[in-house]
Amino acid sequence: MLLLLLGIIVLHVTVLVLLFVSTIVSQWLVNGEHTADLWQNCTSGTVFHCLASSSNEWLQSVQAMMILSVIFSVLSLFLFFCQLFTLTKGGRFYITGVFQILAGLCVMSGAAIFTVRHTDWHHASENTSYGFAYILAWLAFPLALASGIIYIILRKRE
């Protein structure tokens, strides 16, 4: 049982790190010396220069979804530790699992909106590609859902 708990905690912390990195790092779109993320557009060359991102409604919804996913995942980890010590024997971690699944759905919604609408913000060109932070956001989605489902299935033992 101890190895199972350790494994679920490692999975949860991995999801949390992926969510933090994908929300913060400026690598959602990459075009040569130009990078863009949810918060700023940066140009590297002789001088590294960053500007605030646009105030599009869809971009603000992506920002909100990514922040909500981080909040739900942190809250889920906190609730897991609380339930670990207060839950009765045989009880399930329903609340923890629901919050982790909500985190996964929020990151999926944010990344899906970004996928559909990013051409409104930066016109597509041959050199534009998705950055590693965007890929980490999509990677966090199935891992968050999997850990949420594991929490719901998991029963507390002595």
UniProtKB/TrEMBL annotation:
Coiled-coil residue windows: none
GO cellular component: plasma membrane
Gene3D superfamilies, per database record: 1.20.140.150
Cell compartment(s), UniProt: Cell membrane; Membrane
Keyword annotations of the record: Cell membrane, Glycoprotein, Membrane, Transmembrane, Transmembrane helix, Ubl conjugation
PROSITE patterns referenced in this protein's UniProt entry, alphabetically: PMP22_1, PMP22_2
UniProt key word Ubl conjugation: yes
Membrane topology: Multi-pass membrane protein
Predominant localisation class: membrane
Transmembrane domains' residue ranges: 62-81, 93-114, 134-154
Function per UniProt: Might be involved in growth regulation, and in myelinization in the peripheral nervous system.
Recorded family membership: Belongs to the PMP-22/EMP/MP20 family.
PANTHER family noted in UniProt: EPITHELIAL MEMBRANE PROTEIN-RELATED, PERIPHERAL MYELIN PROTEIN 22
Protein name in UniProt: Peripheral myelin protein 22
Species per Swiss-Prot/TrEMBL record: Orthonyx spaldingii (Chowchilla)
